[in-house]
Design brief:
single chain; about 220 residues; Rossmann fold; five-stranded parallel sheet
Amino acid sequence: MKSGGNSQLVKNILNGSLRFEDRYIPNRKTISSVVKTLKDSGYKVVFSMGVYDLFHVGHKRYLEEAKKQGDILIVAVDTDERARERKGPNRPFDKLADRLEILTALRAVDIVMLREVGEDIKDFVKDLKPDVLIMSDTTEDFTPKDKRNILLYCKEIKVLPAQASTSTSAKLRRMMADGAEQLAVKITDLISSFLNGKNNESSHSVSTGNTSRPHRVLPKAKAK
């Protein structure tokens, strides 16, 4: 994208445009240029990343708290392939297009970009040079060495706790429990229906009264 296009894009972002094409920027070079323009204009840029699968109120509050740390919030969203790599073969439940649409509709989020398989957080910070990096206190693969390296390109690292008792894992557990309960009810109903059907079948096959069973008459053997 040319510089003129970048200028218009920056204006749209600052004006709070809710158009998807103004909020989702897949090209890393374009985002780096936009961030530089914003920082040169005195705006404090905040950066975070995540999967944001099965979006819930904890995600919303987390992003709102992240936005409070500066003026512009950029969120890198894991692709479906990266989500499977991190969370397992059955994830994500919400596909990338749906997750992007949700995030770009949030007022707290200004720019959304992608995080592909193999891309490290240090790569993003080195390219974008945000003022603040937002981390979750549930992140386990972030070492003191990572922190030192990141602070070469970022002024501050802010660690945020969970913003609600709800989590994606808790939501999944509830869904699985509800699903198991519903399945158990359906199985019980099916067994009951099957047994009732067998009982009805047995009752119809039993004759009442003192009726005799007809005897089959065999033909006489022919004389030789």
